[in-house]
Design a protein that fits this description.
The chain has one domain: Thrombin, subunit H. It has about 325 residues and is mostly beta strands. About 15% of the residues lie in helices and about 40% in strands. It has 5 helices and 21 strands.
């Protein structure tokens, strides 16, 4: 009931952003970009200005979120779905009270001038976001309860998915588009979602629609929580050229894979003295492989979230 009262308070104070009932006429890529939000925090950074280098607050990316809804939902408050560790990661002692979000349509505003909209994640030490019922699944959702003024629009469109991926969409070698805000591209490019192409690299042989898959798409920190779509290009699972077909929502990026290689000089590993003896220095390298939580799990999360928190009609 407390969460419902928060929503009603916002509504009484002048309205909140809702889902658009009609999709605008634009390319599907632009529509997905508008539904893909940057999630970040406010940090200090040195910024070059006409007056020289100064220290300023900036919006710094920590992950990506997606405005989502159930396939048949046409009204009500939308949800942001992301990887759970973007909101909460006890291994890294990460449990923020709030984070910032930036919409794709504010792309003309630099990250040192526009810090985004504050999204409250906790109240009275209680999390306001909802995790998947299976704690091993790296997914979480939170209602996008913000004012029309903050959103810059009266309504937003969820990911334009006509259908979640079916078994015929998920196969090794399938062409994909991954959307997100990888930190490695630099602050100048954190204002607009970046697209990476790639392929499905590995599919679970057991219940593929419900288990994580791997994509080869040069995934980096900041991509976590971004959507992945199978696109009807390349060849199908039978080796035939794809002609026509639909864009299918495969799932949400959970994490990237990396490897650790020893640093060496003149053919010998570099070692330093540790508390228990010599330690080989390792170099951390991202290998471009991403782990994707499947669309079926996203749907389970949204159904659970809708049942947990009453939503406006």
């Amino acid at each position: 009931m407390r969460r419902l009262s928060i929503i009603l308070t916002v509504l009484l104070l002048g309205g909140t952003v809702t889902m658009a009932q009609e999709q605008p006429k634009k390319s599907w890529v632009e529509a997905v970009k508008d539904a893909t939000v940057a999630i970040g925090s406010i940090r200090k950074a040195k910024v070059q200005t006409p007056m020289g280098e100064v220290e300023k607050d900036i919006f710094a990316v920590v992950g990506t979120g997606v405005i989502m809804a159930l396939p048949n939902q046409k009204k009500g408050i939308p949800w942001i779905v992301t990887a759970k560790h973007v909101f909460y990661n006890p291994d890294d002692k990460w449990d923020p009270e709030s984070l910032q979000i930036r919409f794709n349509w504010f792309d003309q505003k630099p990250v040192d001038e526009y810090l985004g909209i504050t999204i409250k994640l906790k109240e009275n030490a209680e999390h306001l976001w909802i995790a998947h019922e299976d704690s091993s699944i790296d997914l979480a959702a939170i209602q996008l309860v913000i004012s029309i003024k903050d959103a810059g629009r009266k309504s937003v469109n969820p990911v334009p998915v006509q259908a979640y991926a079916s078994s015929s969409d998920l196969y090794e070698g399938a062409s994909i588009f991954a959307f997100g805000y990888p930190g490695a591209v630099g602050p100048s490019y954190w204002t607009r979602a970046v697209i990476r192409t790639g392929i499905v690299a590995w599919v679970s042989p057991e219940k593929p629609l419900y288990n994580t898959c791997l994509i080869d798409s040069l995934i980096y920190p900041g991509n976590s929580g971004g959507p992945v779509f199978k696109v009807p290009t390349g060849v199908d699972q039978f080796g035939n050229l794809n002609v026509g077909g639909k864009v299918a929502f495969l799932g949400i990026i959970s994490k990237g894979r990396k490897e650790f290689n020893p640093l060496s000089a003149k053919g010998k590993a570099i070692k330093i003295q540790g508390s228990t003896g010599p330690v080989v220095l390792l170099s951390e390298q991202w290998i471009g492989i991403g782990v994707v939580e499947p669309a079926a799990r996203v749907k389970e999360l949204l159904v659970h979230a809708f049942e947990t928190i009453p939503h406006t009609k």
